[in-house]
Amino acid sequence: MNKVEISTPGKLMLFGEHAVVYGRPCIVTAVDQRIKVAIEEMGNQSVILNAPEVQIENLDLKLKNNDLNQIPKGAKFIAAALNNFCAEYHLEKGLKIVTKSDFSSKFGFGSSSAVTVGVIKGLAEIKKVKLSNKQLFELAYKSVLDVQGVGSGFDLAAAIWGGTLYFVTGGKQIKPLRVNNLPLVVGYTGIKADTATWVRFVAERKVKFPVLVNDIFDTMEKLVELARKALENEDWDSLGELMDINQGLLESLGVSTLKLTELIHTSRLSGAWGSKLSGAGGGDCMLALTDKAKTVEKAIIEKGGQIIYAKTNAQGARME
Ligand code: MEV
Description:
single chain; 320 residues; alpha+beta; 12 strands; globular; binds (R)-mevalonate
């Protein structure tokens, strides 16, 4: 029987979150905490899914035309990936799909996107069709939009290409950046945030104050260009300052929380070059750029945060 195993990395947004939903660029890095997707062909036409990290056990799916409204939350992205792949490439046999994650889906590391990419790449291997990274991205992006309606797709690009990327909305530009492992400390607030909720929150602020919010996005765009240079030159002083400015702009969009702000300020006071939230805001993770990792980690823990050890610039989707 035909069997494949794919692994894909999680991600951390470094600069430009929210603005990237509105046509601006961002910078994202892939992290070495991965999701594995094993796919095995079976005799009949059904699909059996096991995804223990999102409490899915022996769920019956169809090869295509799954009604996403009827599918439990944890399985929606996989059902959408099946729908979109099988609409283009006909699969005859049934499948057994099992996922296994190195990290909790609560961290905001992009587990839904990583699993979507893993499933589509796995299906392509089973079907023996050669998908380019861009074709894989397009199918995965359609699947994510089918489920959550919003999103720039930056996390899919990180899961596919890996490394550290300069990315523009919907994959209009995807450029690998020359960087090594970044001196980052990652702190988890203990609060799981829902991306779609925070994207909608910003959309509402943009309706109310369009001129202000567009100006913030324009400033973020300029900031991302400066951050790209500082990153490639390993100019940590400037990169840290740019993180602080990015955080200020995110504060003005209204997506930072007391816990995030507390962990960010404590990192700065402990000597970090700079610190900001990472992702949609509302909880999830913050980042501190620092060569004093131990001191910053201790300060974050003292304020009730949890340290997540993750190397940046990790390899993209691969066969295991
Ligand atoms: C969420 O991690 C980042 C956002 O920019 C949404 C997106 O780009 O899809 C808020």
